[in-house]
Amino acid sequence: MHNEPDLSKAQLFLDDTWIEDANFVSRQWHQPRKFPDPVLKPEHPWEHWCPVMYGTVLHWRGRFRMWYNCWTREPKPRVCYAESTDGVAWEKPRLGVCEFDGSKDNNIVLQSEAPRYIDDISVIDDPDDGEWPIKALFWEGKIHDLKQPDWGIWAARSKDCIHWDRSPGLVLPHWGDRFNAASVKIAGKYVVLGRAPGSRPHGRQAWRTESRDLIHWSEPKKSLARDVEDPVNMEYYSATLFPYEGLTLGSIERMYMSPDRLDVELVWSYDAGRAWQRAPKRPAFLSPSEGARRWDDTWVNLPTNGPIRHQGRLWFYYSARSGAHGSPYPFNHGAIGLALLRVDGFASLMAGERTGLVVTKPMRWPKADVHVNADPRRDLISHPGFCSGDVRVEARDAAGKAMRGFTWDDCEPVPQTVNDPDASRKVLWRGGRSLRRLAGKRLRLAFRLRDAHLYSFRARG
Question: Which CATH number do you get for residue 456?
Fold first, then answer.
C-alpha cells in the first residue's frame, strides 16, 4: 500500500494496491467505444491523405483545439491546426501563417524548408506562464546521422496556439523521431518519453527525461522496454503519459513487426512515469478494426494528451491508418477518430450471479462522504434501465468488524451511474447516515457485488 493516498482522488482498481481480500470477483479490462466515422479526414493537398495524431488535442479557452501531423513522404510532413466547439465537427481555419504551393490559404502552423521536415509535435498547456501559455516540442531534421548536429527535438512557444516562436531552438539533439511529451506538467516538470540517442540498437524503447524550463533536460533513463512476456516480433514504437486522478497513466504503442500492425496498451505509474505497471495478460486498450478493409484497420495510436472529460465521458482522440511502413501511395491512408470511455472505466472488479466481496486495506477516513463508481449490470451493453444487480458498501473497523449502523444491511444500494455526468454516487446508510460521521477513524471499506461492476471509490466533501 502506498503511503498517504489522496482519497479525494478516484481510487481505481487497476491492480491490487487497495485490495486486502477478494472473493468471487474478476478484473475486467475495458476498451473505449469508437465513434463509427473519423472526425477529421484528409481534404487538402497539403494533408496528402494521411493526417495522423502525432500531435495533441486540448480543450483550451472554451474550444477543442487539435495540432496534427500530415505524415507523407512527398511533400514532407508538416503540422496543421483544427478547432471545434463540440469535439465532433472540426473546422480547418485558413490561417495565413505558412506557405504551401505559393499560397498561405491553409491551416498549416509549422513546417520546415525541404529537405528538412517535422515528424511529430507535442503541445503543452502551461497556464503558469502568462506570456507564453502554450509550449510545444517537435521533431525536426533531415536524416538520422550523428555527424549532423541539427536534428532532434526542438522547442517552441505560443501566445495564441497558432503563431509559434521557435527561439528556444534544439533542446534534445539526436533524439529519435517518434516521441511524446505530456501535455501538462507532471509534478511541476515537463516530461518526455522518446528514443534517446544511442538506444536504437536495442530496438524501439521509451526513455524518460524531464525539465523545469524546457531547455535543460535530465539524463535519460530507460522507462519502458520489451520483456520476456512480450512477443519476440514486437517493439515499443512510442509511449505516452498523462496524469489521471492520483496516478500517471500512459499508453504503449505496440508495433508487431510481422505483420506490421500497431495497437495500444494501457499502463500506469505511481511515481510520475519512472516505473510502470502492466496488466498481467496485457490486453489491448485500443485495437485496429477487424474485418473488412477500413480506415483504421492497421495502425492506431493515441495523442500526447490524456482523455478530455466531456459530456460525462472520457474522450480519447486517436490516429489510425490503413497502411504501415513501406506502404506505397495511396495505401498509407489515414484519419483521426474518437473513442469514448466511462469515467474511471479502464478496469472494473466484476461479480456475476454469485455474490462477490472486495475488502480494502485500512485507511484513515477524512471528513467526507464516500462516493462509488459502479454499475449494477453484468452486461454493460444492456439497456441502462435494466439493472438486476446489486452493489452495497460496509464500513469495517481496524479489526475487520462491521461498524454499527454502517453494515451491508443498513446500506442503500448504489444506483447505476452510466448516464450520470459525475459517474459516481454518494453512499448512504439507513437514516441518511454518511461516512463523514466516521471522520478521523481508521477503517476498511467492504464492497458486496452481485451482477455488477465496481470501478472506483473516493472521498468527497
Answer: 2.60.120
